[in-house]
Design brief:
The chain is mainly alpha-helical. The chain contains 8 helices and 2 strands.
Length: 159
């Protein structure tokens, strides 16, 4: 998640380089595949969630997290990189690679983006957003309810 939501901007606006999301996704799935486990264990990779930020909050958020200086964050704010469509497409691209890599290694892939967003605008629904306009993280309490619906094993653990 950090690579898609923060490191992308750091690489582009600080290092002046492109981030290799393909390599990051492949390396991550390779890492999960290589974890020692009992053959009965179902390894699962969870997709990156969509960005909850409004376009105007992307630059200030990056500055709040210390990823960019105020000047660099201002450049992001003025660019197409801050546009929701571009941010959500980057997440979809990364998740597509994760899913493909998981399929090739017989690892379960799962995400809840469809349940958390308006299908036409790809805006995160308010019930999943934090009260801070700069927070890239979602509210775990409401996402947990979605995971309980997705995963029988998790629901079985709940009282």
């Amino acid at each position: 998640s950090v690579d898609v939501h923060l490191s992308y901007y750091y690489m582009k606006y600080v290092k002046g380089a492109d981030i290799d999301l393909d390599d990051i996704a492949e390396s991550y799935v390779d890492f999960v595949a290589g974890l020692p486990s009992d053959p009965s264990v179902i390894k699962t990779v969870v997709g990156v969630y969509f960005s909850p930020l409004e376009d105007a909050d992307v630059g200030p958020s990056l500055h709040s997290y210390g990823s960019l200086t105020e000047e660099q964050a201002a450049l992001v704010s003025e660019s197409d990189d801050a546009k929701l469509k571009n941010r959500q497409e980057r997440v979809m691209f990364f998740n597509k690679i994760l899913k493909k890599q998981c399929e090739e290694r017989n690892i379960e892939y799962c995400d809840i983006n469809e349940e958390m967003t308006d299908p036409e605008t790809l805006v995160i629904k308010e019930s999943f957003k934090d009260i801070s306009n700069h927070n890239i993280h979602l509210v775990w309490e409401t996402t947990l309810l979605l995971w309980l619906d997705k995963w029988d094993w998790l629901r079985a653990m709940a009282p």
